[in-house]
Amino acid sequence: MGGTLLVVGETLGGQLTRLSTEVATLARQLAEAGGMTVRGVVTAEDAGAAADELARFTGGEVSAVSTAAAKDSPSATASAGDGWTLGQQADYILLGASPDGRDTAGILSALLGWGVLANATAVSWEDGAPVVEMSVFGGKLLTRSTFTNGHGIITVRPNAVTAEPAPRAGTKSVAAGGNGPELADVRVVDRVAEGGAAASIEEARVIVAGGRGIGGPDGFALVQQIADQLGGAVGATRAAVDAGWINYSQQIGQTGKIVKPQLYLALGISGAIQHKVGMQTAETIVAVNRDPDAPIAEFADLMVVGDLFEIVPALLDELRARSN
Question: Among 87, 128, 83, 139, which residue's Cα sits nearest to residue 109?
């Protein structure tokens, strides 16, 4: 019993990411089960507001480390002054499995000499240590692992837990940004914004996704129309992305995004295990497929068997009629 769990918060556009609120919720649950203390740290150009938000979910003290170095380098989170000190004092460190989170976890692992359990889909507290569940071999197997020396770093996948504020918000303290270990500078030489990038599908309440059965880019125009009528976002399988029909940013599955919408409408998707991994936690799954034996029929809440190019236009007409 006792000890400390440290949550490393991540910001985007100056705001705390939703993934960080999920990680903080998980850390709080683990701390309650293990009789531990939760602390947090946010390192950003201006970390104050994000640290306040993180404290709402940890229920414990959160250190705000404001430093200009955090603008272009995740290494600042791992090495900036009091943030680094907190990492040394913690028993376990939890981060989101985002690109920056993975980079930070790798840096902390090298600096501290701790092991990393990556891409956790669930974490529980058992026999005095966190037990981390991970999906491996394209989602075909689930593994359960823990640390053997009382220390470790865990990166948590999006939507592994539902974010819930603590019954009582924690507090924020302003921390110094210097005196950490010296690391090689990471220099950003260029920034490229993806033209026409879709809104984040990870936060969408409704997702309409297309697979190989959509047939091509024109089919995704129909998918987009359905999504617009439902106020949702468009997703896709890896096969559709690999075919160049839609951007990778909208890929769902083992090698794409992990989503947890209230409604997941799967159009022309067979439901292979690699895709299932990314959307199986949706509250309601509705599938349209001409093959009654498609794997998705085994876990969909509603399976509509038929030609999607007949069914989807009829559905679109009905949705438009109801909106008028």
Answer: 87
Under 8 Å between Cβ of 266 and 236? no
Distance CA 199, CA 176 (A): 35
3-state secondary structure of 111: helix
Cβ count within 10 A of residue 50: 26
Fold of domain 4-175: Rossmann fold (3.40.50)
**Superfamily per CATH, domain 201-323:** TPP-binding domain (3.40.50.1220)
- 4-175 and 201-323 in the same fold: yes
Dig out the tokens for 138 from the structure. 């394209």
> How many CA atoms lie within 13 Å of 168's alpha carbon, on the beta-carbon side?
3
Mean pLDDT in runs of 10 for the chain (324 residues)? Answer: 87 89 96 94 89 96 82 61 68 91 88 92 93 79 90 91 94 73 68 59 90 93 94 94 93 87 95 88 93 94 95 92 82
Lookup result for tokens 């009382």: 150
Q: For residue 101, give the nearest of 187, 202, 18 by alpha carbon.
A: 18
Q: What is the DSSP string of 247-315?
A: -GGGBBSTTSB----SEEEEES----HHHHHHHTT-SEEEEEES-TT-GGGGT-SEEEES-HHHHHHHH
The answer, as to whether pTM is greater than 0.90, is no
